[in-house]
Fold:
Amino acid sequence: MEKRNLTLLTDLYELTMMQGYFKYGNKETVVFDAFYRKNPCDGGYAICCGLEQVIEYVKNLNFSYDDIAYLRSLKIFDEDFLDYLSSYHFTGDIYALPEGTVMFPYEPMIKVVAPIMEAQLLEAALLNIVNHQSLIATKTSRVVYAAGGGVMEFGLRRAQGPDAGIYGARAACIAGCVGTSNVLTGQMFDVAVKGTHAHSWVMSFPDEYTAFKTYAELYPNACILLVDTYDTLNSGVPNAIKVFDEMKAKGIKSNFYGIRLDSGDLAYLSKKARKMLDDAGYPDAVISASSDLDENLIASLKSQGAAITSWGVGTNMITSKDWPSFGGVYKLVAVKPEGSEEFLPKIKVSENIEKITNPGNKTIYRIYGKETGKIIGDLICMADEKYPEDEDILLFDPVNTWKKTLVKAGTFTLRELLVKVFDKGVCVYESPSVAEITENCAKELNTLWDETRRLVNPSKVYVDLSDKLYQTKHQLLDKAHNLNK
Structure:
């Protein structure tokens, strides 16, 4: 796919604010944090996804002649500002969580350090990219966890447009799907493409048996037959067994064969079909299921003893139907005035407690139990703070401060999560392949306790503030309160 110029993929107010900064000579360097406030699906975590596309966007960020002509036609931008835009390029720094990283509310998933006009322009497109892919990756990880693996992404026709289909499938594969039906995603990101046939294939032949036989002759090593076009147990499964018998008689040993169920009572039908296949001598035949699946239905089917080994999940996963928005935001948290070397922390104050931001130029440390390898908690702190592993760490809940945990020296390991992606406008980070990100994501998910991954009422991973950040936040809150007296 050709690289697209997404420079005008922005909200108008980003450009009007930029013109205001330009007119008033505002050249401050600022820090913006992109973060989210609530885990999707009321889960215990989220998965960061979309960084590769953010990098491509920033690399190709420039205003073409046609872009400038269009902005001029709006008659709200002055020529000197349009001249500035015509030579625009990003010169700042960007830090981010690597794709596939498990993350939690209020942690910066991307940090932008740049002149205010440059940082402001990134907001809308950056959020559009990471909000979508992080949402689909998180939803997919829940589906895969419920299924225990073997999930295929089948959502292209129900995705909200081509980009959602392409990049949603990319995110789904990163989060654990074994493949996608989307051929373009397969080509672009070198992920496995999978699929069977539709009911129309069966209906286009004089009878079901002929349809199955023809398909098996064409694709003996990927022979999954859709058995619910007419009558699953009285026609579909018996005809599939007949074709498997004929393949066996001809000495054709398929590497991957079985049936797919796309309607009806999947628990009942799969158990009956399993017995029929086993009795016929095909205990290794796959039983695949589709039909508007999500993590909750899959968990229910498994609890009923459904004999399903492969899951095709479409609409509910590619759209995250029950939780359609990730909710990531992009907030100014620090300002370095022109000529200064020090960042001054800034805070957004609100009567809604969840909308009060964490001020300052920050980083994140993740604390793992040395024996278990599992996450103990995360610590958001100022970027210049260091935490040696040979010293105790006191964690405390930033809201309920009496809730404290002392992590003893020698019992934990630390990892700083944010990595540098752009340095003075130059990309210094090489994006891994989707296969490598998928492997990293699996390792990340394995650092969570099962109690945090459960679908309902998951255990919370604590995200605490360092004492320095906590004190800075409350000083700014007190100052804002006093100003309003």
About this structure: The CA atoms of residues 477 and 483 lie 10 Å apart.
